[in-house]
Design brief:
The complex is a heterodimer of chains A (269) and B (183).
Chain A (H helix, E strand, L loop, with lengths): L3 H6 L2 H6 L5 H13 L1 H20 L8 H14 L11 H69 L5 E7 L7 E7 L4 E5 L12 E9 L2 E8 L8 E3 L8 E8 L11 E6 L1
Antiparallel strand pairs in A: 1-2, 1-8, 2-3, 3-6, 4-5, 4-7, 7-8
Chain B lengths: L10 H9 L3 H23 L2 H17 L11 H18 L1 H6 L5 H14 L8 H5 L4 H11 L5 H8 L3 H19 L1
Helix pairs in contact in B: 1-2, 2-3, 2-4, 3-4, 8-10, 9-10
The chains are: A alpha+beta (269), B mainly alpha (183).
Chain lengths: 269, 183
């Protein structure tokens, strides 16, 4: 080197130590340092001075940092990963969290729709079962009634001697009407024979009412319809001393006193 | 709390222990250089929490890339300071750092730091503080900007509005003054 002194004084060695040179310049300095012991010695002087300067400006970090750093070195040994790519970025975390909650939301909606359709199915099934149940209990009621009427008929036929049979004949209003009333004064029992009942059909607002004439006064014995499904005998209210029976057409449910101009049939014992 | 005995090794022993990834090497490395490196990192980022994180990053990088240290090309500390400085400067140029520390008054921090560091000094070099003070102010400013703040020579020239040659001269003279004091 022509002028070693001016090279030493150029400031390039200080820049080298301070890391302020390009790669080419650095390689140049390193090459020269190997060649010239003076340059090597100068570099060592500069480094030592800066080391001392750094030490005189040292700041003691927090005591707790020591274990943290040493632990991270121990960990760094186990898995050597690039320094800044160690943990996923918070932005990414929120992205994933958002995606996860969105997925969860859609799953919930699907489950809800599914559940709702199942619930509707259940409601339909309940309705079907209820109507079946209703039909069944209607049938039971009907059979119950028929059984009762049939029992009455059986009772009548087994004890025919005890009954007085009264045939009621149609009045002017219903010449074709006729019906049979069985009366057992000992048991105070009155039944009408549904199988031989012949009365003009009544509408829904009206019903026939059976009366017993007791010492000239009408006594209510209950109501009935002209069309019945049963073929047995219908038991009416009880009465002791009846001289005659009569049927009037009354408002549905019956009246307290017979409407005389609606007299449909009458028959005396 | 009794002060922990700091582990100290010769530079050759330390380099050997670090090459072998010995635990004792890591402890000696920290005990010998953490405060010097922290002093530099702290002055660059001006933020205690960030400086602590960066000190940890620096040691991890020293530890992981130790095989690339070539003792024939310079002292260990010089190599480590450049790592610490690069990590710190990268941080100051990152977006999140600029957002978090925009309003910090750097000059005030440096002043308070000077006082603060006086208390934390090693007893063995405490007497040297006064000698350091003999550095000419214009030399000290340039030296501190480069060494403790991470400015390049060109950046110092721009910041102080002085020619690049003057920066180099002041830097060199400043280091010569240090050599007179320390070596």
């Amino acid at each position: 080197m022509k002028n070693l002194k001016s090279y030493l004084e150029s400031g390039i060695l200080e820049q080298y130590v301070l890391g302020d040179l390009s790669i080419e310049e650095r390689l140049e300095v390193e090459k020269n340092a190997v060649k010239y012991p003076e340059i090597k010695a100068e570099l060592i002087e500069i480094e030592s001075a800066l080391l001392s300067y750094a030490m005189s400006n040292a700041i003691e970090p927090a005591e707790s940092l020591r274990n943290k750093v040493l632990n991270s070195l121990e960990k760094a040994e186990a898995d050597v990963r690039p320094l800044y790519a160690a943990s996923p970025k918070p932005g990414q975390f929120y992205k994933y969290a958002f995606a996860a909650s969105l997925a969860l939301f859609f799953i919930s909606v699907i489950l809800l729709i599914n559940l709702n359709s199942k619930l509707n199915d259940s409601y339909t099934q309940i309705a079907v079962l209820q109507s079946g149940n209703q039909r069944f209990s209607n049938q039971v009621n009907f059979i119950d009634e028929e059984l009762r009427d049939t029992r009455n008929a059986l009772h009548f036929y087994q004890n025919q001697a005890a009954y007085k049979l009264v045939t009621l004949k149609g009045s002017d209003k219903a010449p074709a009407a006729s019906m049979l009333v069985a009366f057992n004064p000992d048991e105070e029992e009155v039944m009408i024979d549904l199988s031989t009942l012949k009365m003009p059909s009544n509408d829904k607002e009206h019903q026939y009412q059976l009366w017993a004439m007791v010492d000239g006064k009408p006594v209510d014995l209950g109501v009935f319809d002209s069309e019945v499904d049963s073929t047995g005998m219908k038991k009416m209210k009880s009465v002791k001393n009846a001289q005659a029976f009569a049927v009037t057409l009354e408002l549905r449910g019956g009246s307290a006193n017979p409407t005389m101009d609606q007299m449909m049939a009458i028959g005396s014992i | 709390m009794s002060p922990r005995t700091k582990i100290s090794l010769s530079e050759d022993e330390l380099v050997k222990a670090l090459r072998n990834k010995e635990k004792a090497g890591a402890e000696a490395l920290y005990d010998m250089y953490s405060s010097s490196l922290y002093g530099i990192i702290f002055r660059i980022v001006q933020h205690e929490e960030i400086a602590e994180d960066l000190l940890q990053d620096t040691f991890v990088r020293i530890w992981n890339s130790f095989s690339s240290y070539d003792a024939s090309k310079g002292r260990l500390f010089t190599w480590m300071v450049n790592i610490a400085r690069n990590i710190s400067i990268d941080k100051t140029r990152s977006k999140d750092f600029r957002n978090s520390s925009k309003t910090e008054d750097i000059e005030n921090n440096v002043l308070s730091l000077e006082m603060q560091s006086g208390n934390a000094l090693n007893p063995e070099i405490l007497g040297l503080k006064e000698l350091v003070a003999k550095l000419k102010p214009e030399q000290k400013i340039v030296l501190d900007m480069v060494y403790f703040r991470g400015f390049t020579h060109a950046e110092v020239s721009e910041e102080l509005e002085i020619p690049l040659g003057t920066v180099k001269t002041r830097l060199r003279n400043g280091i010569i003054s240090l050599r007179k004091v320390f070596n």
